[in-house]
Amino acid sequence: MASEFDLIGRYFTRAAPADVLGVGDDCAMFPVPAGRHVATSVDLLLEGRHFFSDVDPRALGHKSLAVNLSDLAAMGASPLGCVLGIGLPQADEAWVDAFSQGFLALCDTHACPLIGGDTTRSNQGVVISVTVFGSVDPNLALRRDGARPDDDIWVSGTLGAADVAYRLLAGALAPDPVRLAATRAALEWPTPRLALGRALAGMAHAALDVSDGLLQDLGHILKASGVGAVLDYAALPVDPALTGLSPEDVAHAVLAGGDVYELCFTAGRQRRAAVQQAAREAGVPVSRIGAVQREPGLVVLDDSGTPMPLRTRGFDHFGLD
Amino acid sequence: MASEFDLIGRYFTRAAPADVLGVGDDCAMFPVPAGRHVATSVDLLLEGRHFFSDVDPRALGHKSLAVNLSDLAAMGASPLGCVLGIGLPQADEAWVDAFSQGFLALCDTHACPLIGGDTTRSNQGVVISVTVFGSVDPNLALRRDGARPDDDIWVSGTLGAADVAYRLLAGALAPDPVRLAATRAALEWPTPRLALGRALAGMAHAALDVSDGLLQDLGHILKASGVGAVLDYAALPVDPALTGLSPEDVAHAVLAGGDVYELCFTAGRQRRAAVQQAAREAGVPVSRIGAVQREPGLVVLDDSGTPMPLRTRGFDHFGLD
Predict the structure, then answer these.
(1) Exposure on the CB side of residue A259, measured as CA atoms within 13 A
(2) Least trusted range by pLDDT, from A151-160, A309-318, B51-60, B113-122
(3) How far is CA A208 from CA A186, A188, A316, B47, B93, in A?
(4) In terms of Cα–Cα distance, which of A189, A197, A156 is closest to A73?
(5) Sign of CA dihedral A228, A234, A237, A238
(6) Which residue out of B10, B12, B26 would a mutagenesis test of the A interface target, given it has the greatest number of A Cβ atoms within 10 Å?
(7) Predicted TM-score (pTM) of this structure
């Protein structure tokens, strides 16, 4: 390793919490509360594929951890710590400083200390690998395979803003600086719903975070649980920043748009008040958007109660098999 | 995610052990034995930087996990599982099949199940990120900061073969097919010393694995422990495959050659018999190569007991500060 990269590693080195062995040994070490299991998730983020080369490095630092914390949230787990692997084409200290600020600020917000890592030169683009660890009661963890017929289907927050921001930046939508300003934070500064996930542990039957689009991700729950679902399109929480877009662009954004990091979950009908109470305590709105049914398949009903022709509108690559 | 990459993910999907939630949910989940801490390490391996583009994918799969298991070994930890992030320029199923065979065979050897991951297309080269988890008694863990004056310094196995193989493949040494055949396995199929690490837990005072070269890595122990050391060059276990190389090439290989993944550790002089017994039980030879001393600095004595002029021979980039 070049010494300049050792230097860069120091931007990520902080004092470890008590009982934790942090950066600087062969491994990091941390304790796990008695009776709980470790929940872990890894995400690989590659320049030019998962983020634009000119992204604000502070936002990228935030998002690199946020997408992993979102996986912990979707299990109902509480963060214990994280490790970061980062490959950089050059030792750009200003870039690293900004990236580390965004990353470490989110570490602090959620008490998820950075306890280890690997810093290396990349002769390609920027490569980021984050692995998070959380703890969860295995009997209360929110899995994907627990949805039951007649469960309500819920989603947190609003849908569509991140997709619209992405398409504006990628040139797939006509330039619109006002709309970009209103949607960009959803794409670049997602909020992991950790408090909501913890509150739902033991209450929701199944959950995940919407990273690849509502229909595709809900499809994972349905497949894992061996059930189907009907969604009410009018009940979807469309982000206000989408006002004025064509119905087709709105439908794409809310049904197929990825990078959302809201929680989609199912719960018994008798838990409606409890779900709403949990959402209030977590400080994030939730919307009841449909119901699980015994018959396989995923149907979205439009305002008149007619199934929307998803396949003919370009959604057949969802592979909802 | 393109469906072809979902397909590729299946090469890595195996039934999880009892009590473990494996591939397929937002997070993997695993229990940790009571009273033990989690030890974790991440390594990022990039094509063209950490491995040649034409490397045997089965060997690469093995090595990607081996270098992480070596970090667990250096803590005295026992594997619990691992997660893999992999970015590929194209969906080459034959390559992935071979890679997964090498990776999963080592998982099986060390009871370290692959429990989660992230598979994505890379518009750069092949990107591999492995995070391993192990368990260890925090009071017995082998840290870097425990070396004491008058400790013996030990190293397992032999030194130099991986460096010579690397230099032959990179063209830094004249072509020599016989020597390449004799050294290549050391570079491409390293053996993590997990049994030795476990046996040394509670016995050695400090340990690490030699990934960046003996002098540089031993320097980490000395710095963390606030001590110095004298090494006896004649006592270093030079790999027999180095026979016939120039003294300079041998010295470079054994003192500065990386990619070794042997354990370097210190232990009290009164534990010599116990260390040798642990090594016999672990099935790997160990060599006593020097001693820790109170005075800072790292000196290597040649056959006549004279300090070798390391700095004038190109070793000053080790940064032994």
Answers:
(1) 23
(2) A309-318
(3) 18, 20, 22, 33, 29
(4) A197
(5) positive
(6) B26
(7) 0.91
Partner-chain contact A141 B43, CB within 8 Å: no
Q: How far A305 CA sits from the closest chain B CA (Å)?
A: 31
Contact in structure between A225 and A148 (CB atoms under 8 Å): yes
Strand order in the sheet with B228-232: B206-209, B263-267, B152-156, B286-293, B228-232, B298-301
Which residues on A lie below 8 Å from B23 (Cβ)? none
Look up the CATH architecture of domain B152-312.
Alpha-Beta Complex (3.90)
In whole angstroms, give the CA distance from residue B210 to residue A284: 49
Q: Name which of B143, B136, B316 is nearest B225 in CA terms.
A: B143
CA distance A160 to A180: 12
Cα B147 to Cα B144: distance, rounded to the nearest angstrom: 7
- What is the per-residue pLDDT across A104-160, written as a single tens digit (0 to 9) for each? 999 999 999 999 989 888 988 999 999 999 999 999 999 999 999 999 999 999 999
**Candidates 2.40.160.10, 3.20.20.140, 3.40.630.30, 3.30.1330.10; correct CATH number of A3-136?**
3.30.1330.10
* Cβ-contact B11, B108 below 8 angstroms: no
Q: Specify whether the CB–CB gap between A205 and A266 falls below 8 A.
A: yes
- Strand pairing class (B78-88; A298-301): unpaired
Instruction: Specify the DSSP element, H or E, that contains B263.
Output: strand B263-267
Would you state the pLDDT for residue A131? 97
Q: Which of A3, A44, A138 sits opposite B87 (nearest CB)?
A: A44
Contact flag A40-B27 (C-beta cutoff 8 Å): yes
The number of residues in chain A equals 321
Q: Do A117 and B42 touch (CB under 8 A)?
A: yes
A312 contacts: CB under 8 Å, gap ≥ 6: none
Question: Of B26, B220, B9, B119, whose CA–CA distance to A73 is shortest?
Answer: B26
Task: Round to the nearest angstrom and report the end-to-end CA distance of chain B.
Answer: 46
For the stretch B79-101, pLDDT in tens is 999 999 999 998 888 999 999 99
What CA–CA distance (Å, rounded) separates A187 from A208?
A: 18
Q: What percent of chain A has pLDDT over 90?
A: 81
Which contacts qualify for A244-250: CB closer than 8 Å, 24 or more apart? A244/A179, A245/A164, A245/A173, A245/A179, A248/A313, A249/A164, A249/A167, A249/A173, A250/A160
Give the Cα-Cα-Cα angle A100, A106, B65 (nearest 5 degrees). Answer: 70
The ipTM estimated for the assembled molecules is 0.89
Structure tokens, B163? 């460096």
Let me know: does B27 contact A142? Beta carbons within 8 Å.
no
Look-up of token digits 């090594």? B279
Q: Are B64 and B128 in contact (CB under 8 A)?
A: yes
Domain boundaries in chain B?
3-136, 152-312
Phi, psi of B160 (to 5 degrees): 105, -25
